[in-house]
Design a protein that fits this description.
Layout lengths: L1 E2 L9 E5 L6 E7 L5 E9 L4 E9 L3 E7 L6 E9 L2 E9 L1
Antiparallel strand pairs: 1-2, 2-3, 3-6, 4-5, 4-7, 7-8
Length: about 90
């Protein structure tokens, strides 16, 4: 499990849960105000882009689930970009 630790930037947090016994990667984004347009990018340890998703969150929270089978095992990063949000989290696919 990876997260950016305590909430920062007035209440922003990104949590990536990738547990060995689960076939899913859970991503939870909480922000102190409406997120709006959001851009998610998954990359492997070498920086190769594995998956890109763009969407819109009209609330302060966005929860997404991804199939772990889409990603190779090993270290990976998730970059989350929105209007006033730019956070990168590192996690491991096991």
């Amino acid at each position: 499990m990876a997260s950016n630790g305590p909430e920062v930037d007035g209440g922003t947090s990104v949590k990536v849960e990738c547990q060995r016994g689960s076939g899913m990667i859970n991503v939870s984004i909480k922000h102190h105000r409406r997120i709006g347009k959001v851009h998610l990018v998954f990359r492997d340890a070498k920086g190769k882009t594995l998956y890109v998703e763009e969407g819109k969150a009209m609330t302060e929270e966005l929860v997404r689930r991804f199939d772990k089978g889409m990603f190779p095992k090993g270290a990976a990063t998730l970059s989350v970009q929105a209007r006033d949000l730019d956070i990168t989290e590192t996690f491991t696919v096991q």
